[in-house]
Specification:
Length: 109
């Protein structure tokens, strides 16, 4: 149950709604900076939003997908259940033993 694009977009909206100063900063980016990178102002803004989101996740000691779940889960219990489910998927894709994976990432089952 990896996070989906719609869930991530909802998380970005909530993230931005909770940070009016970031919204103001993003709404007032220099369009010449976007042009210098060969991007449209909208693409440049979106990239800065994703960078801010990932920086906040890192500051909290989370993966960006965990912050997405945290912002979109209905309850704390729902967040924990979804989080463990995604971690299980990652462990399976990596071919790692679940207990070893939990130990590596400090997860309690």
């Amino acid at each position: 149950m990896a996070t989906n694009d719609q869930q991530h977009e909802q998380a970005l909206k909530l993230f931005l709604d909770q940070r009016p100063e970031l919204r103001h900063e993003l709404d007032n980016l220099n369009p010449l900076l976007a042009q210098a990178k060969g991007e449209t102002p909208a693409q440049f803004r979106e990239e800065r939003l994703h960078e801010a989101f990932e920086a906040e996740a890192e500051r909290l000691g989370l993966f960006a997908w965990e912050l997405t779940l945290q912002l979109t889960a209905a309850t704390a219990e729902d967040y924990q259940n979804q989080r463990l489910e995604v971690h299980r998927e990652v462990a399976q894709m990596a071919g790692m033993d679940w207990l070893e994976y939990c130990e590596l990432y400090g997860l309690s089952q």
